[in-house]
Amino acid sequence: MKVFILLTSLFVSNAFALEAQVIALEAPLLQKPQLNSKVVQLVRKGEKIYLPSEYDEPNPNHPKYNPDHRFEAYPENGFYETLDKSGQPAFIPAKYVKVIWKDEREFSQDLNPWEHDPTDYRIAEPIPDGYPLVPKNKFKALVSFVTGPDEKNNFAYGSSIVKEDFSNRYGLDMGWLNKVSWDPYDRFYFGALATIQTSQAKIDLFDERKTTETRGFVGLGPLLSYDVYRTEKNRFTVLSALMVRYNRSIITQKSTDTGEEEERFFSGWSFGPKFSGLYSFRNAFPFTDFFIGLDLQVILPHTTNANSGTEVSTLWGDTTSLNHGFNAQMSLNVGIISWN
Q1: Count of alpha carbons within 13 angstroms of residue 307, beta-carbon side
Q2: Phi then psi for 78, rounded to 5 degrees?
Q3: pLDDT digits (tens), the chain, 340 positions
Q4: DSSP sequence for 29-76
Q5: For FRET with 58, which of 33, 120, 143, 290 sits at 20 to 30 Å CA-CA?
Q6: Which residue, among 305, 321, 295, 313, has the nearest Cα to 240 in the 3D structure?
């Protein structure tokens, strides 16, 4: 009996003669070479395990070494076979192991190949406030640059347009958001959004008039955001707001025939929903995400009226207002979101 045990021990020692070191904090030994297989044992970082000697190839310095069959960094199925503490066959993911080759192949794998060990469940100190619960009072503040094509709608001049040049809109969005109390997953935020945008259009008319329309608006409204997707590095957020806008236009007309020139102001209110999708790069700066996204501003029909009469009626005719129909404006949004 003793002879049998001794022979068995010698056989196992020879069969599993290749040493390897666990380089993950806590690596699983699996019943089968599959990630969803039953875990039969956990081995800690620094522990040694033994692999079948068949994994080894001849030493590269050996005269008969064939470089065409040199050992690969990982087996094809991604697992090494080993033994658990009861001596039964088990399998360990190859990425959690560094094989001790005792030759130049030692340099084929680092002892710390990850930026973050995937098996390391420990939390670095200091522990975040409120852990493991999400703090009740959380907020976000956003600032972004906005640009997009302008609304191609102009004053009714009573003459054919010979040439027109509409610039892009440029502006700034500013928002403040607080975490809602009924969301335990820290995805919904509610707050307010303010925006200011401006643009310009130059128009030449058939009757030798040249006009410049300088447009702008300020808007304010409630804002709701939801994080649809998020990882440690990225986040995709959808936002919706109902904006109330104060619109103002300054129209300057000049007749190249008579030299007459006049400037008039038009103003009015409008409202409509605004929808946004933002893709954020998290922690681009301390406590700050950088984002890029698209906005869709829906503008319902409205009118802006002249603030005063005219002294040169030949330039304006009887028209005293600008009518704006239903419109939707797309904008590019680039900015930052800071959070506490």
Answers
A1: 11
A2: 80, 10
A3: 444 344 344 444 455 678 899 999 999 999 999 989 999 999 999 999 998 877 765 556 555 455 554 454 457 788 989 999 998 999 999 889 988 877 777 777 777 787 888 888 887 777 766 666 666 678 999 999 999 998 877 777 778 888 888 889 999 999 999 999 888 888 999 999 999 999 998 888 888 888 888 889 999 999 999 999 998 899 999 999 999 999 998 888 888 888 888 888 999 999 999 999 999 999 999 889 999 999 999 989 988 888 888 878 778 877 788 888 888 899 999 999 998 8
A4: EESSSSTTSPEEEEEETT-EEEE-GGG----TTSTT--GGGPPPSS-T
A5: 33
A6: 295
Give the HSE-up count for residue 182: Cα atoms under 13 Å, Cβ half-sphere.
Answer: 1
Q: What angle do CA 119, 125, 127 make, to 5 degrees?
A: 95
Distance between CA atoms of residues 218 and 124, nearest Å: 45
For residue 213, the Cα-to-chain-centroid distance in whole angstroms is: 37
CA distance 230 to 269: 37
Eight-state DSSP code of residue 117: -
- pTM of the predicted protein model: 0.60
Q: How far apart are CA 328 and CA 147, in angstroms?
A: 14
Token pair, residue 55, equals 């994994």
Take residue 62 and report the two structure tokens written for it.
């050996």
| Distance from C-alpha of 147 to C-alpha of 157, rounded to nearest angstrom | 28
3 state DSSP class of 10: helix
- Are 173 and 142 spatial neighbours (Cβ–Cβ below 8 Å)? yes
Q: Which domains does the chain have, with CATH numbers?
A: 14-108 (2.30.30.40), 139-339 (2.40.160)
Rounded distance, CA 203 to CA 162, Å?
8
Report the alpha-carbon distance of residue 128 to residue 186 in Å, rounded. 15
Smallest CA-to-CA distance from 146 within 165, 169, 114 is with 169
68: buried, middle or exposed (CB in 10 Å: 19+, 13-18, 0-12)? exposed
